[in-house]
Amino acid sequence: MNPLSLAGLFAALVLLGGCVPKTDTATPLSLAEVNADLERELADFDKQTLDEEWWKGFGDPQLNAIMAEAQEHAPSLKSIQARYAQAESIIRSAQSHNLPSVSADASVLRERFSENHIFPAPLGGSVNTLYHPSLGMRYDFDFWNAREARINAAKNGAYARRAYLSAARLTLSSAICETYLAWHYDEEKRRVLGTLEQSALEEYSIVRRRYALGLCSKTEVRESEQKHARIQQRIAAQRVLIEGRKKSLCVLAGFLPSRASQLREPRVSETFRAPIPKEIVLNLLSRRPDIAVAKYTLLSKGYGIEHAKAQFYPNIVLSGNLGFTSFGRSSLLEYASATPGIGIAVSLPLFDGGEREANLQHAASDYNASVYEYNEAVTRAANEVVGLLKQSVWLEEQLRFHREELASRGMNEENARKKHRLGLSDKLPALARKSEVLEGELGALELENVKVSLQIALVRSLGGGYREGKE
Questions:
Q1: pLDDT higher at 450 or 77
Q2: Cβ contacts of residue 400 below 8 Å, gap of 6+?
C-alpha cells in the first residue's frame, strides 16, 4: 500500500470514529483568590516554621515514644498503607501496557484422525501425536493517549492514597496528643483538688470544734461535711477520668489494655505554641494532606475524562505469531514445520448503543463531583485556619482576665490570713478565700486545656508539617 492510500485510510478511520460529545466540567477554586484572602486575614500573625514531628515541642519523652510506636504499628494506619501499596501495583499494571505483550504456549495432542474427514489415508484412520509450540506477540497502538491517561489517572490515585495516609497520621497524632495533654491537665486538677480537700477537711475540723463550744449550729457542721464529701467525689471522678484517658491512649496507639498500667504521669512543657508557617499565605494548600487528597483525586478524575474520550476514536492492534506444528518431534523445528503469521487489526467504534457517550458523561460527572469536593476542602481549610487563629487570640484575652481575677483572689486570701495572724478573725475566712483561689486555679487549668486543644487543632489545620511528595 502506497503512502497516499495509507493516509487516506487513516483519514477515513478518523472520520468514521465519530465526534466526541461535548461535556460540561466544573472549575476548581482559584488558588490566587484563596491566598489573597488569607494574606489579608493573617497579616498580624508572626510566622515561623512547622515541623513534621511537631509534638516534640511539648518536651515529653513518653509522648514522643507513644507517638513513634503508634505511627509505626497502629492498625488504623496499617490498613491505609496496604491500600497505598495496592495503588502502586495498579500503576505498574497500567504501565505494563506500554510494552508489547509476549506469550508462549505449547501443546501435545494424541488424536485419531477420521477416515471420513478431509484427511486422506494413510493419515485418515491413523493415530498420531501432534506437537505445536508457539510464540505470540501483541501490541496495541495508543494514538489518542488513552493508555497514558489511564496511567496518569492511576498515578494521581496513588498520590491521593499517599496523601490520605499522611492525613490519617496527622489525625492520629493530633488525637493522641490531645488525649495526652488532657491527661496532663487532669493530673494537675487532681493535685489542686487534693489541696482543696485538705483545706475543706481543716475547715470541717474548725467548724466541729466551734460546734462543741456552742459557737455554731449543727447545720453549719453538716454543710462543712457535705462540702468535704463533694470534693472527695470530684477527686474520685477525676481518677476515673484519668484512667479513661490512659485507656483512650491505648486504643488510639494500638496498645493492649495492660499497657495502660505502664504509662507514667505526663511531664509536658506548657510553653508550646503552634507556629504559623512562613509560607502559609503562598502555599497553605500544599501543606494540608486532606487538600492534597482532594487535589490528586481531582487530577485522577480529569485523566478519566481523557481516557473516556479516546474510546471514540479507532485503534490499531499489531499481532504476530511464530509456531511449529509437526507429527513427529524429530522434524518439529524444521522450516517445513514452521507456521509464522502476522496480522493487523483495526477497531472502529461505530455504534454501541450510546455506551461510550454514557461512559464519558459518567467520567465528567465524577470529575465535577471531585471539583466541588476540592473547592469545599479548600474553603473549609482557609476558614478553619483563620477561625482557629482568632479563637486563640480571644482565648488569650480570656486567660488574661482570668489571671487578673485569680491574682485578686490571691490578695483577698492574703488579707484574710493577715487578719487571722493579727487575731482579728479566726481561720475560717482565710480558708474560704483559699478555696476560692483553688477553684480559680481549676478554672485556669480548664482554660489552659482548651488553649492547648486549640493549638493542636491549629497544627492539624496547618497540615502538621506535611509536605507533598513525602509519605
A1: 450
A2: none
Q: Which residues have CB under 8 Å from 373's CB, separation 6+? A: 294, 297, 298
Spatial separation of the C-alpha atoms in residues 380 and 165, rounded to whole Å: 20
Residue pointed to by grid coordinates 461535548:
22
> Which pLDDT score is estimated for 159?
82
Q: What is the pLDDT of residues 386-421, one digit of tens each?
A: 888 888 889 989 999 999 999 999 999 999 999 988
Are the CB atoms for 426 and 206 separated by under 8 Å? Answer: yes
pLDDT of residue 282: 46
For residue 122, give the 3-state DSSP assignment: coil
Q: Over the Cα atoms of the chain, what is R_g?
A: 38
* Count of residues in the chain: 471
List Cα–Cα distances, 385 to 62, 312, 380, 459, in angstroms. Answer: 29, 45, 9, 9
Which residues are registered as beta bridge partners of 127? 112
> Does 284 or 373 have the greater pLDDT score?
373
Residue with cell 496527622: 170
d(CA 280, CA 465): 11
Report whether 71 contacts 172 (CB < 8 A): yes
The pTM for the full model equals: 0.77
CA–CA dist 146, 34 (Å, integer): 34
What is the per-residue pLDDT for 425? 85
311 vs 348: CA distance, rounded Å: 10
196, pLDDT greater than 70 = yes
End-to-end CA distance of the chain: give it in Å, rounded: 54
Residue 308's identity, in one-letter code, is: A
Helix axes 289-310, 146-212, angle to 10 degrees: 160
Mean of per-residue pLDDT scores for the chain: 83
pLDDT of residue 350: 72
Residues 6+ apart with CB under 8 A from 17: 312, 313, 314, 348, 349
Question: What does the block give as the cell for 112?
Answer: 485419531
Which of 439, 60, 461 has the alpha carbon at shortest distance from 270? 60
- Render the burial of 236-275: b for 16+ CB within 10 Å, e for the rest: eebeeebeebbebbbebbbbeeebbeebeebebeeebebb
Average pLDDT (133-150) is 80
Q: How many CB atoms lie within 10 A of CB 329?
A: 10
For residues 322 and 340, the answer to whether their CB atoms sit within 8 Å is yes
Type of residue numbered 196: L
CA distance 48 to 276: 5
